[in-house]
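Dock flavin-adenine dinucleotide; give full complex structure.
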Amino acid sequence: MVEQDTAVRPSPTIAAVLASGDHPTMSFEFFPPKDDAAQAQLASAITDLEPLRPDFVSVTYGASGSTRERTIAATRYLSTRTSLRTMGHLTCTSQSVAELEAAVAAYAEGGIRHVLAVRGDPPGGPSQPWVTHPDGLDNATQLVRLVKAAGDFCVGVAAFPDGHPEHHDVDLDARILAEKEQAGAEFAITQLFFDADSYFRLVDRVRALGCGLPIIAGIQPVTNVRQLERFATLSGADLPAPMVAALHAVAEDPAAVRELGVEIATELCDRLLAGGAPGLQFFTLNRSTATAEILARLREIPPHRG
Ligand code: FAD
């Protein structure tokens, strides 16, 4: 008699899903809620988005470790209350190696197997020079090594189609991405961007270095013009002038801004998928409507009907 294998098998990692080439991944980024009202908003967004069956969801981490407990709690909430593959972000800013190791251990204890290892903004803010914690790490590449050494984690990293704002050197960015792969990173997720060609040029630069890291495209649905301009300043993303002009033309009409924002994102996602992007990560800001609408419209475009 053949005994039935009843052991629970761990679900495939994000890297394995990407490597299978089965479908472009679709995923959602959330931030950790800071109070009960924010928790209710996150819960509502998740209720709306879970039926779309994302390949994974992720939770951001305050640059200085300020949200450590809340981020870890949110990842536990997602992994225990939902069926969603969950990733926690981690930053180096203002934290010692011991504190980083404790955060990684807390992820492991909560059953979180995926970490997005990013450096974080400088302790003085995005426009200030980077300062390493006296017992800490200098950059994300070192953080990838720390997480990989700490356990059986699948690790992702950040990528910048419009260049990282600190150096404005896209070739350096590509070399750093290749170093992150050598350190053990298995995929990257980009910063927000609006020109599909910037994404494809980044992929070309990285591939020219022999780096095969799958690069998931980060998508920011635009729902508010001023907020978009603030995000672009902070992240170094280029805003195409015609897009900004079109958004400003309807800036006083929130419904028109949202509609245009959905159109812009749908067109961008369509171009990215048609050009071979292996996945899309939506920066949801803990809201579901715009993201759900973009995905519904993408399904109406023939090549993406699933
Ligand atoms: P790094 O790769 O360490 O690069 C930082 C800077 O150092 C770059 O200018 C790079 O050129 C330079 N550098 C790195 N290595 C070298 C080297 N060997 N030689 C020379 N120069 C080097 N921030 C948060 O605080 N919390 C989050 O949850 C968060 N999530 C993010 C998610 C995504 C998808 C993205 C794209 C960004 C996220 N960020 C988050 C923002 C991120 O922390 C900042 O963009 C940060 O400034 C850079 O992070 P990094 O991981 O690219 O750093």
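Observed: Residues 23-298 form a domain with the TIM Barrel fold (CATH 3.20.20.220).
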